[in-house]
């Protein structure tokens, strides 16, 4: 009861001698001290990974057991940690508690906000070990590495063509399904890819963003400009 009352009083009589952080319970201070000492007394019997707190070991064990005790009441999806369930519930509630102080965009997870902030700061902490190209997200670096390794982990179930990126597989799959989710608002023509819709829309807008640097002729498509350039350089790559 004495420990419980500190919840109401806010009393924190146990203080860390190193960083002055205070705690309401001596056990919490004991756990905290392992941050400074590096002590990890709790060991996984399967993979030998060690942890500073018993709770962290319990969460880790679910990787091996496959246990997912936290269940969504709406879609029945299950999670190994309560925090994962809490993040997931925001899909259903639409809650976005994390706000960018610069552009006011909101996010459902703190990690998404952290990634977003790099747009404003220009920070690119993830570096390719082979070509030194840098990325703002670890996932972007992971996808980039497949250029060097040649890895194509995403395979089409219909024709066995493989891709380095899941989004490219998704676009490709529309060839087989016939799905055309991108619709022109002017003439209702539909397309399998968003970039194809953007190119088509220029028919209606008259936009011609590609300019010949030699004669200033404008084109709506990069391919048309490329073909036009051959007039100036005399290139004739198509042989009978």
UniProtKB/TrEMBL annotation:
Major location (coarse): nucleus
Location of the protein in the cell: Nucleus
Cited Pfam families: zf-C2H2, zf-H2C2_2
Annotated GO CC locations: nucleus
Keywords from the UniProt entry: DNA-binding, Metal-binding, Nucleus, Repeat, Transcription, Transcription regulation, Zinc, Zinc-finger
GO molecular function: DNA binding; zinc ion binding
Domain C2H2-type, first and last residues per copy: 1-13, 14-41, 42-69, 70-97, 98-125, 126-153, 154-181, 182-209, 210-237
PROSITE patterns found in the cross-reference section: ZINC_FINGER_C2H2_1, ZINC_FINGER_C2H2_2
Family matches, as Gene3D superfamilies: Classic Zinc Finger
Family note: Belongs to the krueppel C2H2-type zinc-finger protein family.
Name of this protein: C2H2-type domain-containing protein
Organism: Sinanodonta woodiana (Chinese pond mussel)
